[in-house]
Specification:
Blueprint (H helix, E strand, L loop, with lengths): L4 E7 L3 H12 L5 E5 L4 E7 L4 E7 L5 H9 L2 E8 L3 H10 L4 E5 L2 E4 L8 E5 L8
Parallel strand pairs: 1-4, 5-8
Antiparallel strand pairs: 1-5, 2-3, 3-4, 6-7, 7-8
Length: 131
């Protein structure tokens, strides 16, 4: 069911500092920056080959990224796996009693309590050739 790791999301206190450090130390370049009011963060995507690192800076203290950062400090927030059949994977996981949030057909999230503390994302591989 799970394919390659294609996303590693990291909660950070300062998005610009994280981007600058990874650009300087590892030669990564920002593909895109966005903001999600729904999930309460602003982010930057830095491609790493077949996948990317995503830095998340909270903008809403009531949302999950901010609560994660407050409780755990900076660090890995989410691991995203490439999945060929996301709806099929969701059906299978739910049949096993796993809590899965699927708000869109192209992505789903497994609750950390059902994955030994890891927030798991089921997704497609991203195309980094367009903005």
């Amino acid at each position: 069911m799970l394919g390659d790791v294609v996303e590693l999301s990291v909660a950070v206190r300062n998005l610009d500092e994280a981007v600058e450090r990874y650009s300087r130390l590892f030669g990564l370049k920002v593909h895109r920056r966005t903001e999600s009011r729904e999930f309460g963060f602003r982010n930057a995507i830095l491609p790493t080959g077949i996948g990317h690192i995503e830095f998340l800076e909270p903008i809403d203290p009531t949302k999950h990224v901010a609560r994660f950062l407050e409780k755990h400090g900076e660090g890995v927030y989410l691991v995203g796996f490439e999945v060929g059949d996301i709806p099929g994977a969701v059906t299978h996981l739910r049949s096993q009693g796993v809590r899965v949030d699927q708000r869109r057909p192209d992505v789903a999230w497994v609750h950390p309590r059902d994955a030994h503390g890891v927030f798991v994302e089921l997704r497609k591989r991203e195309d980094y050739t367009s903005a």
